[in-house]
Amino acid sequence: MRYLTFLLFFPAFCFAQSGSETILQQLDDRTPHYAKVAQQIWELAELGYQETKSTALLQEELRSEGFTIEAGVAEIPTAFVASYGSGKPIIGVLAEFDALPGVSQAAVPEKQARDGSNNGHACGHHLFGTASVASAIALKDWLKANKGSGTIRLYGTPAEEGGAGKVYMVRAGLFDDVDAVLNWHPSDHNGATAGSTLSNKSAKFRFYGVASHAAAAPEVGRSALDGVEAMNHMVNMMREHVPETSRIHYVITSGGEAPNVVPAYAEVFYYVRHPQMQDVRDIFNRIVKAAEGAALGTGTTMEYEVIHGSFNLMPNETLTRMVHEKLELVGGVTYTAEEKAFAETLSETLPDSKRKPITTAELVAPFSAPEKPYPASTDVGDVSWTVPTTALRTATWVPGTSPHSWQAVACGGTSIATKGMMLAAKTMTLAGVEMFSSPKLLADAKAELERRRGPGFKYEALLGGRKPALDYRE
Questions:
Q1: Model confidence, pTM
Q2: Which of 252, 309, 361, 445 could form a disulfide with 333 if both were Cys (CB 3.0 to 4.6 A apart)?
């Protein structure tokens, strides 16, 4: 019986292993090329929904390798889907490429703005997109060499930073037929964790009043700024009466032009976060009521525009345990003497509480499935509620470096980042081979997703039916 079982298992085993060493070597051989691609996107540092050159660069990489490109999907000019192969299974790979405003930094270990740009890749999405493209091409080569059936599909997903690009793509049904999704993110360490994140919804609340001379005829005016401040006061009182794991942040983006003029227009930008998207919905609706009450009480009018909304991340332990095994197989990142000197100098600029040994980059953290969510939000959350999704992190930054910092931008323009990027590409490639080769793995992952979602789940985007906020960075 054991012999029969081996015979039944052997073809799939051979299919999974055949060519793996070859494609990893191909990734090594192409590392200089992919380093140049990532560097170009790092230098472009294009903001969300404005990534025209970055998306064109990645699309051309895939097109030249035989992928079919569908550009401008989900009413987003910079979004795209690249496909190779046919039939099932369909394995998706996510690729991001947007930068952040206000974090211009040169690739040096001390704070120094980069000439010609106010933006920077402080979350490493130039690496994210490039590694994902590299992995998709490697999986294409593996499918072709093994004459395997299945489809590799790379999703070019813009505006992760506050623009919720993936949400519109999920809402458009672009993930409906996918069997599993591979995803990764730059980090200061290597690991694969089956954890969650915070759900998030944001909106701009705009108040309209009546302008008047603030000294000569104040009784004629109706202050839009009063509307904003009344709203903020009520929301701040509401903080006592929301679940303690909630987060509410706001900034006044417009408060008037001059003190002696009653402001006719004012705007406040709100974020709401919670570990569960239903609580985000409920809290947000209460904030809307506060805004309506503020307008009524100040004699102004109010309208609001939802900017983005994303689900909390749905972990998939079935897939992530497998990814962790592949990550351990590939190993961590080892610095050269020059890279070590850069890392040590940059580490001195980090807060004492954040510093880690430089050798942390060589290690792979143990697998974990934490109950407490990571205190941030991502539009990958919506993907993960639709299709089994897994992720890993690799050390593209000096250990101890925080995302959205100038130190992250500095690391992103160096060979340290390239090494972490290619570690991610290799791990995703091995994980993709496993997915193509194991129907049981995919079936188990889908069963886990259905169990975690619960019966009767129907996807409804937090941002409703609004069109993509293509101008949110303008």
A1: 0.92
A2: 361
